């Protein structure tokens, strides 16, 4: 590495990392809460608590990182400025810039989303252009938390808080990906169709593999997947504790408590396979290709075996209990046999070709994860 | 019959006009006047309800309720109801809040979540107990809100900032992200950082292009789902060779035919009577000259209706056909027609309530309309004049030739009917003392039962209810009536007001100018 000046130790304060981790958590919880709100109560305003949790995340991330940048730029010591990057003359760690960008993206999405509602009607879907912009904002904040933790981990690797903070931020990113794919990969009823495995294969390996490559934990991908599962399970168990009733017609089923999200994908098992492969593969260009192939194939194989079988149980009436939270549907969904059926299993069956596409996507996703992760392992700012 | 010797020479379709009108009718179930206005009884209280529809579905409609007469009111709640599939429960009704500074007016918002006919239940509580009014409202996606210039520029500026900001983050990350703290990048690293940023720019531009394509697709999908009334074709058919036909002797017949095959429309619902008629067809002269008819064609087969055409002056006409479906949907079907100079024939109306008017100049607020029986119809403009977006009642009084108040008889269950048309035909609405709402639509929703998923089951009950309904009689002094309305756009309007007196249907034409708010 060529450098024109002598390196000096970084003294970046740690509190912004705490603030951005809280912000990223608030956003993820807010979004899961908001989806539950739409499925349970129906009508919403700007001031729903779910929206407040999302905005709190944006405000907290934006203001804390904004303050960090201003303080570092105008009143920073040489040590505090040492671990920063320069952006239009301002100095701040990479993670701070990502979080600030995320906050701005969230702000931009607000008037855009408002216009979208007025132009095309109120939300009937999770995925719309303004929602994707909002999600990019969340992602910016989560990446901000990830990079703040990463810089601390790579500079001061002896403190476990930074390693765990990094894996926690990565877990929130995985949760974010699962939320954006809500309409394709959330419900167990979708888990006997090819699309579920293909979307999962494209979305998850890149995050798990990149995290694992840059992490200093023993089981990084597994830990990251456990964070995603933990956050989702928390919402599965906590949301139904709150009474709520539908406030929009037509109401096709009586809803007495907040509808929980579907039970999470058992991602720790494919993530464990990813960890095992990466531990054995070592590093290096040729080895990384082999590692990507191994991790991608292992991910799809374990995901397929686990979710194919688990989803059989999750769509059955036996899983309709407080632990699994299954059988909890929107107030406006007509009761019917579809609740216990696999959807689109005939139109989009899981054939050998379908599995092959999923495997290719997973390998490509894992390879990108290795490139990204190898770079992240060297991030110092 | 020289003038009637060939439908081709008689009737010249104004295709360009039809196309233009086709664009306008997207605006409403009525034409260009989408808000529902109801005036009537809610138990012991008289209320005027205005529902301003959002133009998108799902969407939020604004509702205002003004208590006009009755004992002291303590609370008003509103609840949008929809028929069809039985539901597990009704959502809680919304409490309408008193509008600050106006204790007789209440306001709330309504969530209209699915396209089609809703019935808004307005519950009024007060000193005389509870009263309920059902107001039919059509939830239709009628337009896409354009993005105004300030918002466009704001979003463009923010978008550009985000785009450049994202690239700047990539540049700094690639240039300095992996440097030891305190070190600075050399030339080679800076160059590589620019290459990475350029690649990221290509990826981002590609993502933006994909986002634009997605947006365009969503927009096109929305445009396809916009409400479009059933297209109709109206033509003039000649009487048979013998000079006789089913609808009248020796006269031409107006034939209204659905322009598309209704049995291919999955959501097509049969028609039900509104004010006792399956179709109210209005012919309005397009040049501003005399010529107006309000006819009630009878069905001749599953997709055609016919009515004897009165002796209207030659010229171009706008046609507006109001129909109500069994599912409660009320819509106005539109077409245009050119009528040749009339031949000599004796008009025999198809329906006893058919009427036409070929009177001269329009009356104004200062000059009353002289009706066919020499009685006079006078309009008193509201204080402050006619302004868009302001609820008004159009107050009329009919006096006999001797100057005494005229005794009016019910005309299709109402004291009066009016056709309101902006002179460029961008607005048309069928108005009566109950407002703009369709009585048939209200009945369809009120009388619907769980077994009415079978087509055609509801219509006979609606017809029976309309036959036995008591006509709405005078509530004010003799010869007076009021039509509640809110003009949607400024401009010049023509209003044909029809009443029945001495067994004759009399039409007065008024010119009204509406100012912008």
What does this structure look like?
The complex is a heterodimer of chains A (381) and B (517). Helix content of chain A is 65%, strand content 2%. Chain A has 381 residues and is mainly alpha-helical. Chain A has two domains: 9-180, no CATH class; 185-381, particulate methane monooxygenase, chain B. Chain A has a two-stranded antiparallel sheet. In chain A, helix 1 (15-40) packs parallel to helix 6 and helix 6 (160-180) crosses helix 9 (220-238). The radius of gyration of chain A is 22 Å and the shape is globular. In chain A, 55% of the residues are buried. Residues 1-7 of chain A have low confidence and may be disordered. In chain B, the strands form five sheets. An eight-stranded antiparallel beta sheet of chain B has the order 1-2-3-6-5-4-7-8, with helices on one face. In chain B, strands 11, 12, 13, 16, 17 and 18 form a six-stranded antiparallel beta sheet that branches. Chain B has a four-stranded antiparallel beta sheet with strand order 9-10-15-14, with no helix packed on it. Chain B contains six helices and 26 strands. Mean pLDDT of chain B is 86; it is low at 1-29. In chain B, strand 16 (315-325) and strand 17 (330-339) form a beta hairpin. Chain B has 517 residues and is an alpha+beta fold. Among the domains of chain B are: 36-139, Immunoglobulin-like, CATH 2.60.40.10; 149-177 and 185-224, no CATH class; 359-434 and 472-517, Macroglobulin (MG2) domain (Immunoglobulin-like, Sandwich), CATH 2.60.40. The longest helix of chain B has 38 residues, at 187-224. In chain B, helix 3 (149-176) runs antiparallel to helix 4 and helix 5 (439-447) crosses helix 6. Chains A and B meet through strand 1, helix 4 and helix 5 of A and strand 4, helix 3 and helix 4 of B.
Short description:
The complex is a heterodimer of chains A (381) and B (517). Chain A has 381 residues and is mainly alpha-helical. Chain A contains 12 helices and 2 strands; from the N terminus they run αααββααααααααα.
């Amino acid at each position: 590495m060529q450098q024109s000046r002598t390196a000096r130790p970084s003294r970046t304060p740690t509190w912004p990392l705490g603030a951005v981790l809280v912000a990223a958590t608030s956003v993820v919880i807010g979004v899961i809460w908001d989806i539950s709100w739409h499925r349970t109560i129906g009508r919403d305003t700007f001031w729903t608590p779910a929206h407040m949790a999302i905005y709190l995340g944006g405000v907290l991330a934006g203001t804390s990182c904004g303050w960090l940048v201003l303080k570092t730029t105008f009143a920073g010591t040489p040590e505090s400025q040492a671990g920063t990057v320069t952006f239009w003359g301002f100095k701040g760690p990479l993670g701070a810039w990502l979080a600030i960008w995320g906050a701005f993206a969230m702000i931009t999405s607000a008037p855009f989303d408002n216009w979208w509602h007025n132009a095309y009607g109120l939300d009937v879907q999770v995925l719309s252009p303004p929602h994707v912009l909002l999600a990019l904002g969340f992602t910016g904040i989560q990446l901000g938390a990830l990079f703040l933790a990463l810089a601390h981990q790579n500079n001061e690797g002896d403190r476990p808080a930074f390693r765990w903070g990094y894996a926690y931020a990565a877990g929130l990113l995985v949760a974010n990906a699962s939320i954006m794919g809500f309409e394709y990969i959330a419900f167990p009823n979708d888990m006997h169709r090819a699309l579920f495995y293909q979307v999962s294969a494209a979305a998850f390996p890149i995050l798990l593999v990149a995290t694992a490559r840059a992490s200093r934990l023993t089981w990084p991908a597994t830990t990251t997947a456990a964070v995603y599962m933990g956050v989702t399970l928390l919402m599965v168990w906590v949301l139904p504790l709150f009474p709520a009733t539908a406030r929009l017609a037509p109401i096709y089923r009586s809803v007495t408590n907040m509808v929980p999200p579907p039970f999470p994908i058992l991602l720790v098992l494919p993530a464990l396979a990813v960890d095992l492969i990466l531990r054995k593969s070592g590093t290096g260009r040729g080895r990384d290709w082999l590692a990507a192939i191994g991790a991608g194939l292992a991910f799809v194989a374990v995901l397929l075996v686990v979710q194919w079988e688990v989803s059989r149980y999750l769509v059955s009436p036996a899983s309709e209990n407080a632990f699994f939270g299954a059988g909890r549907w929107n107030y406006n969904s007509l009761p019917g046999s579809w609740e216990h059926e696999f959807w689109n299993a005939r139109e989009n069956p899981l054939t050998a070709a379908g599995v092959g596409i999923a495997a290719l996507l997973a390998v490509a996703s894992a390879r990108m994860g290795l490139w990204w992760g190898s770079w992240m392992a060297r991030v110092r700012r | 019959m020289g003038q009637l010797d060939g439908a081709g020479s008689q009737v010249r379709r104004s295709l360009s006009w039809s196309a233009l009108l086709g664009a306008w009718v997207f605006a409403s179930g009525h034409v260009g006047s989408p808000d529902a206005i109801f005036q009537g009884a809610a138990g012991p209280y008289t209320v005027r309800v205005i529902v301003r529809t959002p133009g998108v579905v799902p969407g939020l409609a604004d509702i205002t309720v003004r208590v006009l007469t009755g004992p002291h009111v303590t609370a008003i709640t509103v609840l949008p109801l929809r028929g069809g599939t039985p539901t597990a429960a009704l959502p809680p009704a919304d409490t309408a809040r008193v509008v600050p500074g106006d204790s007789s007016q209440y306001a709330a918002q309504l969530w209209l979540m699915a396209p089609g006919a809703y019935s808004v239940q307005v519950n009024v509580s007060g000193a005389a107990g509870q009263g309920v009014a059902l107001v039919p409202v059509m939830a239709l996606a009628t337009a896409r809100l354009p993005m105004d210039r300030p918002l466009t520029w704001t979003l463009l500026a923010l978008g550009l900032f985000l785009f450049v900001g994202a690239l700047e983050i990539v540049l700094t990350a690639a240039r300095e992200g992996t440097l030891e703290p305190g070190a600075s990048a050399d030339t080679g690293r800076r160059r590589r950082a620019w290459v990475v940023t350029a690649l990221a720019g290509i990826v981002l531009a590609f993502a933006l292009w994909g986002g634009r394509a997605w947006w365009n697709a969503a927009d096109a999908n929305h445009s396809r789902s916009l409400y479009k009334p059933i297209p109709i074709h109206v033509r003039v058919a000649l009487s048979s060779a013998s000079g006789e036909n089913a609808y009248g002797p020796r006269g031409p017949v107006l034939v209204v035919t659905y322009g598309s095959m209704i049995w291919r429309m999955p959501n097509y619902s049969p028609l039900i009577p509104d004010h006792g008629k399956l179709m109210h067809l209005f012919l309005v002269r397009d040049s501003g000259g005399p010529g107006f008819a309000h006819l009630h064609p009878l069905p001749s087969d599953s997709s055609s209706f016919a009515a004897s055409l009165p002796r209207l002056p030659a010229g171009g006409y706008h046609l507006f056909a109001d129909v109500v479906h069994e599912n409660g949907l009320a819509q106005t079907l539109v077409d245009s027609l050119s009528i040749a100079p009339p031949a000599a024939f004796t008009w025999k109306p198809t329906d006893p309530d058919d009427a036409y008017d070929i009177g001269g100049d329009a009356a104004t607020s200062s000059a009353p309309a002289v009706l066919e029986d020499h009685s006079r119809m006078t309009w008193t403009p509201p204080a402050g004049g006619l302004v868009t977006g302001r609820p008004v009642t159009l107050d009329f009084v009919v006096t006999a030739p001797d100057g005494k108040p005229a005794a009016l008889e019910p005309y299709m269950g109402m004291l009066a009917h009016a056709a309101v048309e902006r002179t460029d035909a961008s607005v048309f609405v069928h108005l009566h003392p109950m407002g703009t709402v369709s009585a048939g639509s209200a009945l369809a929703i009120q009388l619907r039962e769980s077994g009415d998923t079978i087509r055609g089951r509801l219509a006979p009950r609606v017809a029976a209810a309309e036959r036995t309904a008591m006509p709405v009689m005078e509530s004010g002094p003799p010869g007076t009536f009021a039509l509640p309305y809110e003009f949607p756009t400024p401009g010049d309007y023509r209003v044909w007001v029809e009443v029945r007196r001495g067994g004759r249907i009399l039409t007065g034409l008024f010119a009204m100018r509406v100012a912008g708010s």
